[in-house]
UniProtKB/TrEMBL annotation:
It holds the Pfam family CreA. It comes from Halovulum dunhuangense. It comes from the Bacteria. One of its GO terms (cellular component) is cytosol. Keywords: Signal. Residues 1-20 form the signal peptide. This is CreA protein.
């Protein structure tokens, strides 16, 4: 029963954060049966800061298990965040708040993006990494968006 509750909590947690739009994908390895292995590029807007968008590329496992949604994707991901319009804070900022998350295995693995604010440098920092219920990965990437004083419309 405890395992079911944990699995349900993980699925609910996957819904937290911004919704991504798939921008494109490229095949990285041919699979005779099922989908090819891919790199997927997704974009999402920060839900609490208007004018900032992030672009995440991540590996997506193919083959039969990938096609059926049973494969576990690797922890490889990259991120680039940019100012795409006037910056406006529309919510409370929490240090390390998840702003995007995507399930990368049936239940237990996720790639996520969390946001930090470096007040002394007036900069937003976005960190992407992969975690698992038991053991995460040290693979990570960051991107920073400097907020010029004349841009902040808070």
């Amino acid at each position: 029963m405890k395992r079911i509750a944990t699995a349900l909590a993980l699925m609910v947690a996957t819904a937290i954060g911004a919704q991504a739009e798939q921008i494109g994908e490229v095949d990285t390895a041919f699979r005779l049966l099922g989908a090819n292995h891919k790199i997927v590029v997704e974009a999402f807007d920060d839900p609490d800061i208007r004018g900032v968008s992030c672009f995440v590329s991540r590996a997506k496992t193919g083959g039969i298990s990938g096609t059926l949604g049973l494969a576990e994707d690797t922890s490889d991901a990259s991120i680039a965040c940019r100012q795409v319009g006037p910056i406006e804070f529309v919510g409370e900022l929490e240090e390390g708040e998840e702003v995007f998350g995507r399930r990368t295995s049936v239940l237990f693995k996720r790639v996520q993006v969390v946001r930090f604010f470096d007040e002394s440098r007036n900069t937003l920092i976005y960190l992407t990494y992969s975690d698992r219920l038991i053991d995460g990965s040290p693979k990570n990437a960051i991107s920073a968006v400097a907020i010029r004083p004349w841009d902040a419309g808070s």
